[in-house]
Amino acid sequence: xxxxxxxxxxxxxxxxxxxxxxxxxxxxxxxxxxxxxxxxxxxxxxxxxxxxxxxxxxxxxxxxxxxxxxxxxxxxxxxxxxxxxxxxxxxxxxxxxxxxxxxxxxxxxxxxxxxxxxxxxxxxxxxxxxxxxxxxxxxxxxxxxxxxxxxxxxxxxxxxxxxxxxxxxxxxxxxxxxxxxxxxxxxxxxxxxxxxxxxxxxxxxxxxxxxxxxxxxxxxxxxxxxxxxxxxxxxxxxxxxxxxxxxxxxxxxxxxxxxxxxxxxxxxxxxxxxxxxxxxxxxxxxxxxxxxxxxxxxxxxxxxxxxxxxxxxxxxxxxxxxxxxxxxxxxxxxxxxxxxxxxxxxxxxxxxxxxxxxxxxxxxxxxxxxxxxxxxxxxxxxxxxxxxxxxxxxxxxxxxxxxxxxxxxx
Length: 410
Ligand SMILES: Cc1cc2nc3c(=O)[nH]c(=O)nc-3n(C[C@H](O)[C@H](O)[C@H](O)COP(=O)(O)O)c2cc1C
Ligand SMILES: [Fe+2]
Ligand SMILES: [Fe+2]
Fold this sequence. Notes:
- A hairpin with a 3-residue loop joins strand 4 (23-24) and strand 5.
- The chain has two domains: 5-246, Ribonuclease Z/Hydroxyacylglutathione hydrolase-like (Metallo-beta-lactamase, Chain A), CATH 3.60.15; 251-398, Flavodoxin domain (Rossmann fold), CATH 3.40.50.
- The protein contains twelve helices and 25 strands.
- By secondary structure, it is α/β, with parallel strands linked by helices.
- The chain is 35% helix and 23% strand.
- The structure holds flavin mononucleotide (FMN) and fe (ii) ion (2 copies).
- Residues 260-266, 312-316, 344-350, 375 line the site of flavin mononucleotide.
């Protein structure tokens, strides 16, 4: 019988891997799956920290039952976050362990009633409250709106484990290891962590900063989020990553995102890209909106300081996929980027005006020239595209505004 994986002599990972779901939240591709992390603490009292989505429940319950060994029951279920990817198993857990008390804050209880019609056997905690399990003791830290109103974190004092809810989480199922120090190359995992952050949590960056300030005084040895790796060796590194991302800190480099129906905007993109490369812009990523899911594009725009958007005019406005991406970025409220814009039109134009308005609403810096070409770009048009690339590099290199919001050629 499977009994989960020990973090220490009291705490066990009893989570499950989801390799069936194609799109997390029916939005974000998860080709490498995702884990729903749940932890069982065996002490004088038994506490389960967070549950899982209502998938693979047989495996989930097998792990829990294996640890309880037919002799014990669950006394408490602590809910740090009630989104159904962590609370889907709550009803079945209550049926199997009828004495189990559900622990959460006031907002957790409101949502528990709304989502699961559960209203009894509850223990409501406030910020700073503690719960003794015997040798282990839990502290509750309310960290609202990362990314739901009820989100909180639970700190286990004896082993100094912070159960942080979705914060510090990442996509990908836990295949070869569940701890950071079991993974030889963390690079690909950190990419998936950034994608999870930007897709799911990033809009609430200000609240992430507040949560980080709140846990700053805790002496954390292990960081156990509800998704992804458990950080037992480099928990400080995971905190640094989330700190940098939620401060909108970017690394040197430029992302070009474009769409093109018949190749005109694509020609412009190539001129901008060549110029960025020859001027040594640093890392350059080029994404065709029609080929690459916005999930990945969002992560790259969050990673790099420069972003260049190219769109043909479509029915007087933006190409629909670019319209979608700009709405997504606006919703995520990403700040502090330097932008360039270009595109081809047939008669009225419209895409460049909409892109310009978007950049203004985002409060990003706009680098000149804004290049709008009628039909296929000629030699002069391509020179303007190259100038856009060169100006972007100058702006990124000097750190000073360059041709910002001037429109047209400088
Ligand atoms: C469905 C459709 C709608 C379009 N609507 C407009 C429009 O409202 N105004 C305009 O100036 N051009 C419009 N165009 C023309 C395109 O903007 C023009 O063909 C442009 O060169 C396309 O760039 P691309 O080759 O990069 O796709 C439209 C084209 C298509 C196919
Ligand atoms: Fe969540
Ligand atoms: Fe989650």
